[in-house]
Amino acid sequence: MALEIERRFFVVSEAWQELSVKHEQLDQGYLSEGQEAVVVRVRRSQQHAWLTLKAPTNNPEIRQEFEYTIPAADAEALLALTPRRVEKTRHHLNCPGGDWVVDVFAGANAPLVIAEVERSDPEAPLTIPSWCGEEITGRGELSNAALAMRPWSELEAYSRGNRFS
């Protein structure tokens, strides 16, 4: 079984930018919904396209994840099937502790900025960089799938003051 071990944080400063080694534009759409169900996502960048299935486990930091490369034309056709979309620029970072990325959201999810770190061991120590704010791991309303249905601009508790962006 493939597992994704990930922690997520609001980003509170631009200090992460000096660690960015590459970035890519991502367009992703959700073909299924629901926090308790298997989420089916299609994602496209300039160079690649993927179909991903994610299922929850008993630990909010760990999910089952199955990801498959698909032809760009298939991704385009699948994206056309759903209005539940997220657009973002993903920055890959050179940062210790795992595979760190920072997602800068566009459209109705702007100006949201979230950091994610994928790790191979959830028990391994992790130093949280100073540019990370509140941890949002396991916060269903802030998952990409949820933001595709109810964007940041509609989440009054957060977006009204933009206190984390």
Verbal overview:
The chain is mainly beta and 165 residues long. The chain has helices at 72-79, 144-149, 156-159, and strands at 3-11, 20-30, 39-44, 49-56, 62-69, 85-93, 99-105, 113-118, 132-135. It is globular and about 40 Å long. It has an eight-stranded antiparallel β-barrel with strand order 1-5-4-3-2-6-7-8.
Structure in a nutshell:
With 165 residues, the chain is mainly β.
Question: How is this fold's topology laid out?
Answer:
Elements: E1 3-11, E2 20-30, E3 39-44, E4 49-56, E5 62-69, H1 72-79, E6 85-93, E7 99-105, E8 113-118, E9 132-135, H2 144-149, H3 156-159
Antiparallel strand pairs: 1-5, 1-8, 1-9, 2-3, 2-6, 3-4, 4-5, 6-7, 7-8
Question: What keyword list fits this structure?
Answer:
165 residues; mainly beta; eight-stranded antiparallel beta barrel; disordered C terminus
Estimate the mean pLDDT confidence. Answer: 92
The major sheet is characterized as: 8 strands, antiparallel, barrel
Shape: globular
The proportion of strand residues reads 35-45%
Helix content: 10-25%
**What low-confidence regions span 5 or more consecutive residues with pLDDT below 50?**
160-165
For the terminal residues, how far apart are their CA atoms?
35 Å
What's the alpha carbon Rg, rounded to whole Å?
15 Å
